[in-house]
Specification:
With 291 residues, this protein is α/β, with parallel strands linked by helices. The protein has 7 helices and 13 strands. The strands form 3 sheets. An 8-stranded mixed sheet has the order 1-6-9-7-10-11-12-13, with helices on both faces. Strands 2-5-8 form a 3-stranded antiparallel sheet. A two-stranded antiparallel sheet has the order 3-4. It has one domain: Alpha/Beta hydrolase fold, catalytic domain (Rossmann fold, 3-Layer(aba) Sandwich).
């Protein structure tokens, strides 16, 4: 009898976790401006990182979020909205998405994985459609805080490469919703409470300035940047953005590592930068997000 009860409990718990990790359409009636439904492509035949394939997800026209709850006995209440990178052309969905959510769940941090629209849409800025998606994800997450047992005042964004650019844009353009109101989920603040940028791309312009879509001011959320010195194409993104935040007197931290390149996610590639999740956790304690 005892074994039967344990088995039933296991099935119920497993079903609960599956239901909580089920993708939720961000725009049930269709995303703004999308006229054609694409067939999503998931490709595992590309380059490997640390010996493991990278899931390259493309042709996304129906953006979703997936909630990854922290274990009930180790739930800090903090939630990270995760934005994978991929140049706004594809999403490195496992390397910079599902693996990150599961890693931070182990640390007691809830995660929301955003599958935003790719590739770039013709005639609009590269981040325009994805910004609508991540803003909606922030709104939906915050409005479901009670149901999901998370703190609505401790919700941040984390992104990699292009996803880091998207996270920075969302963190500096939160005053204006970029999509038409869908429902009551949209009647909440779009401001992230903190921002985590991992090897960010597209943040820099000329003469030590930042890209014009980044509206940095004193109300920009506290930010941490993880960067390597040998990420030659994008190191200026981190340096210039750090300087802009400093000048605006925004609390900002940057960890600059000597090596590691670009696109390592949280896998063990043999470089010291692989420790970055622990630096993020320590920083979240410093800024009083993790209590």
């Amino acid at each position: 009898m005892r074994h039967k009860l344990l088995f039933i409990f296991f099935i119920i718990t497993t079903m609960s976790l599956i239901s909580q990790e089920k993708p939720i359409l961000l725009f049930p009636e269709g995303a703004p401006g999308e006229k054609v439904k694409m067939k999503q492509v998931d490709d595992l035949t590309g380059n490997k990182v640390a010996g493991c394939p990278v899931m390259r997800t493309g042709s996304v026209s129906e953006p979703t979020l997936t909630f990854y709850p922290a274990p009930a006995d180790n739930n800090s209440g903090v939630t990270i909205i995760v934005n994978p990178g991929g140049g706004y052309n594809i999403l490195a969905y496992n390397l910079e998405g599902t693996e990150i959510c599961k890693r931070f769940n182990n640390y007691g941090v809830n995660c929301v994985l955003v599958k935003y629209r790719v590739p770039r849409r013709e005639g609009i800025e590269k981040h325009e459609a994805p910004l609508q998606d991540v803003q909606r994800a922030i709104a939906y997450t915050r409005s479901h805080a009670k149901e999901w047992n998370i703190d609505p005042d401790r919700i941040g964004v984390l992104g990699f490469s292009a996803g880091a650019h998207l996270s920075a844009v969302a963190s500096t353009n939160y005053m204006n919703r970029t999509y038409p109101r869908i429902d009551s989920n949209d009647d909440v603040s779009l401001r992230p409470d903190f921002t985590v940028l991992i090897y960010p791309a597209y943040l820099s312009a000329d003469n030590f300035s930042i890209s014009p879509e980044l509206k940095v001011d004193e109300n920009t959320p506290p930010t941490i940047i993880i960067q390597t010195q040998d990420d030659y194409s994008f190191i200026d993104s981190s340096l210039f953005y750090y300087y802009a935040l400093k000048e605006a007197e925004v609390p900002v931290t940057m960890h600059l590592y000597p090596s590691g390149g670009h696109g390592y996610g949280a896998r063990n590639t043999g470089h010291t930068v692989n420790e970055w999740p622990h630096r993020v956790l320590a920083w979240l304690r410093d800024i009083k997000m993790i209590k």
